[in-house]
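Troubleshooting log. The previous structure file for this entry was overwritten by mistake, so regenerating from the original sequence record. Sequence copied from the archived sheet and checked twice against the printout by T.R.
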Amino acid sequence: MAKWVVYAKRADFRKLGEQFHIDPVIARIIRNRDIVGEDAVRRFLYGTPDELHPPRLLKDMDRAVAILREKIACHAKIRIIGDYDVDGICASYILLSGIRYCGGTADVAIPHRVHDGYGINVHMVEEAYADGVDTIVTCDNGIAAGEQIGRAAALGMTVVVTDHHEVPYETAADGARTECLPPADAVVNPKQAQCPYPFDGICGAVVAYKLVQALLEGDTDPAGAALLEELLGFAAFATVGDVMELVDENRIIVRYGLRQIAQTRNLGLQALLTVNGLRDRPLSAYHLGFVLGPCVNATGRLDTAFRALQLFLSRDAAEAAVIAGELKELNDSRKNMTLQGAKRAIDMIERQGRQNDSVLVVYLEDCHESLAGIIAGRIKERYHRPVFVLTDSEDGVKGSGRSIEAYPMYDKMSECRELYTRYGGHRMAAGVSMPRENVERFREYLNAHCGLTPEDFEEKIRIDAAMPMSYVTPELVRQLAVLEPFGNGNPRPVFAQKNLRLIRGRILGRNNNVGKYEAEDGDGRRYEMMYFGDLEKWHAFLTEQYGQAARDRLYGPGGGGEIRIHAVYYPELDVYQGRERLQMILQDYCKGDDTT
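Regenerated output below.
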């Protein structure tokens, strides 16, 4: 059972509400998100793209722009080398569009996940040289590619690195760190220690967007402004798809990018929206992260990511529709493979008795390596522990990790870097390759040096306010929309209500996987409550706490009333045939008191 933690941050919520014309509950939620000060609150609520940080603050941005302008002017051949996920694909599209708009001769190469691995490699460098490429621009990769970029330099090529991943470092005996930057002509990455950029939480596509912004400085053609508007949508897509925190300028990018995607003129995006039933519907960050993004990622997992880039580059509606359909089919296939892989991984953990390991390392020999990260995420959600899923690859073992808040995954991995042939990542996720014989040493080292305590493994649900459902009105729910987009770093607000009586219930949904209930508070007011979570687990809780007979009566013709729960919930407005009604969405629960 998760631990419930109610925020206790203080401020004059009534004054803030009056100042910004919002309910005091909304003001409380903003304070819970650590938004402090009048200007910060205004920017959170009403920030515009004009308030994005200036691109020139990024270290080496001036140098990168000067290089590209010179190469464009002399018609040098430029190759963009991206990555095979939604961030890398969007970043590649952004850079290609920007450089071509400026008159440059550019193309894109995206590594194949299985045959090439992550990011730029020596083979791709030599292939570019053989193709007469003068300049390589990386996006969403390159910061850890010292050897590969060194090879490009030896061949006389110019290299500009744009990336957002952690900078590799060496640690001296006294603990001091020295960054190991690749020998590129310019390195644009906000994670560099000497970079003055005020926010380092941007994704690779946003770094690429900043470079295009800087390239277009001084351009007065309305077409340039229109291009930047279009590309903001792709930057937003990647920000959500790469699970960046929706704070600071990311919040502005996603808020305005969603509007741009909804009205996009890009035929590929239009087709992707259509095939997923989202055309002409309100879009949220959820749709980018859990509907559209997985379709784009599926190409890099099960096919070639270049297919997704072709979708965005398509100038033919019929062609775009075909590609979008292929992407959706690939994602449907990926879902089934992920379910099977996660079940195998959980069975293995339970069979080997490793569910209490501090860091879970699962070796699935014949798992498709592209699914390792998704499966690791599923296992992390189940056990609330850092997880690595490894599988066989062409040159040993390859895998991905997903972490919890208390475990800085990249730093901890760096402590035993001698075990790997390649690795990279950040605090919450990482990738690794190693010889097969090192897997057990890897497991043992991480568990022996994890630094985690039992409290770190306890899932926490942070409650914005202990708020009775009687306080909820349609106007309050409408005001909650000013807090969107919701996602990593800005979760959907949740509230708590004690001692709800469950009067009656029904099971709904095509797969009988949704619960609908009539709930009553201590003052006799009744509410419609929906539960979209794990019904099997929910029913086991009801049976264990109240007995099978009480559970049966809850769903019977006469209803129940014996079951009392404390509930974590959020409110929604359900609109059907033009009519609104309030619904409370049950997020978590525990046994209520015997009497109110």
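The first helix runs from residue 13 to 20. Archived copy saved in two places this time.
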